[in-house]
Queue: 2 jobs
Job 1
Amino acid sequence: MGHGGDVIAELTTDHREVEELFGKIEALSPGDKQRKKYADQAVIELVRHSVAEEAYLYPAVREFLSDGDTVADKEIEDHAEAERTMKALEAVGADDPEFDRLSGELMTEIRSHVRDEEDNLFPRLRSAASEEELMKLGDKVRQAKKTAPTRPHPSAPDTPPANKLLAPGTGMVDRIRDALTGRGKD
């Protein structure tokens, strides 16, 4: 899918791409090796997406919404929970019985998170921030995803400024590991 536009359009496109990968996993039989490939691709996209949200979306939520701190804290906790699940999923093969449990748990967590963002957070943010501000955030999110990590790091900082400082270096190491192992490639 094409990316661009304001932060809400950018993140919604990410949501659709991850859902498409989830659908591919669900369409295959348990134990099919392709399921692991699609799960790895989903994790790569989810980690990049989460890092960008934590660096730029949630600080904007704190700024523009009257209850922004509470909302952002809840979203970051959702991310932490999903990241722990992704870390566990990373360690199992498609033929491991834990794969089905963990991938199902991740899909449930992410689908709930996406529904909440799209039904509640995004409309509120669109009402509170100007189109210019949303466009600038979209650009920042796209840039952040280019250098973001591609593997879950549950113990990494998830709030600025530490997350903005560490993510590019961690991302570079992750991309080198991915290139060496072929992870995330078709």
Job 2
Amino acid sequence: MTELRIARTAHTADLDAATLEAARTLLFDVFDDMTEEDWEHALGGIHALVYEDGELIGHSSVVRRHLVHGGRALRCGYVEGVGVRTDHRGRGHGAAMMNALERVIRGAYDFGALGADREVARFYTRRGWQLWRGSSWALTPAGIRRTPDEDGSLYVLPTAATPLDLDADLTCDWREGDVW
């Protein structure tokens, strides 16, 4: 019988090169559209890693971003790189990783956010994540730009300390690659 557990949550700085490479390889295997920029987006925060029989089979991370809502720049715990090896899905690994990340979000950030395809959106909404109904924007080097392709795929995890108007505009900070 295999053992399900979060082997560790750790900051990127506390993960050795072999663990980081295993996580990178896992995400590139799980997602056929994964890019180096996507991998970079998953670094610099807290990682939740799941192992089965000593092998890394799941990765997720939460990184700090600033998102503008209601005229305020809020500290956002942005979830990146959530992936479970295909042959290990449906066993609670994703939920175990999200439990760890949601604890971090609730304890350290004004709210959480993530981008999700419609195929996996139900996983997040069952956990209390809410669809952002307002317009999405990005602060780019050329100014604030509308990101209409992201509308309908952004989800937030409100915290008790920060009320959110889900119908308002939401603007993310700039980064290379996919801004959301």
